[in-house]
Amino acid sequence: MKALSVHQPWASQIAAGSKTIETRTWPTSYRGDLLIVSTMSPKIMGCPLGQALCIVRLVDSRPMTLDDELAARCRWFNGAFAWVLDDLRPIVPFRVKGQLGIYDVPLEDE
Predict the structure, then answer these.
(1) Are 61 and 90 in contact (CB under 8 A)?
(2) What are the sequence ranges of the domains in the chain?
(3) What is the pLDDT of residues 63-101, one digit of tens each?
(4) CATH architecture of 2-97
(5) Under 8 Å between Cβ of 76 and 69
(6) Is 52 exposed, middle or buried (0-12, 13-18, 19+ CB in 10 A)?
């Protein structure tokens, strides 16, 4: 499965459904399911680190606008791309070694 590493607290916000846009400095042509993986830092009390937290569907990647700030849980910045997430599916968290970019994580039922 394709995966994306996200820093805390944003990874947990995606898993909770309160963050529906992930911001990146690069666009992607990929569309489809993404396993959201929390990075190992920063350490924030109560936020899991180095774990797959949920599955979402990436439905769009476009330049970020000021209107995206609430859904992205961050301010607009020059060069930001809004990765629009939909179809949140909770999972039982499990350990994953994160990587840069979109990467593959083998799942047992694949």
Answers:
(1) no
(2) 2-97
(3) 999 999 999 999 999 999 999 999 999 999 999 988 889
(4) Roll (2.30)
(5) yes
(6) buried
**Nearest CA-CA partner of 97 in 65, 41, 51, 46:** 51
Q: Is the pTM of this model over 0.85?
A: yes
Strand order across the beta sheet in which 21-24 lies: 21-24, 81-95, 51-63, 32-38, 2-6, 102-104
Reading the block at residue 98, the tokens are: 């994160």
Amino acid residing at 74: C
CA separation, residue 59 to residues 3, 34, 46, 95 (Å): 14, 10, 29, 26
Please give the structure tokens belonging to residue 76. Answer: 């607009």
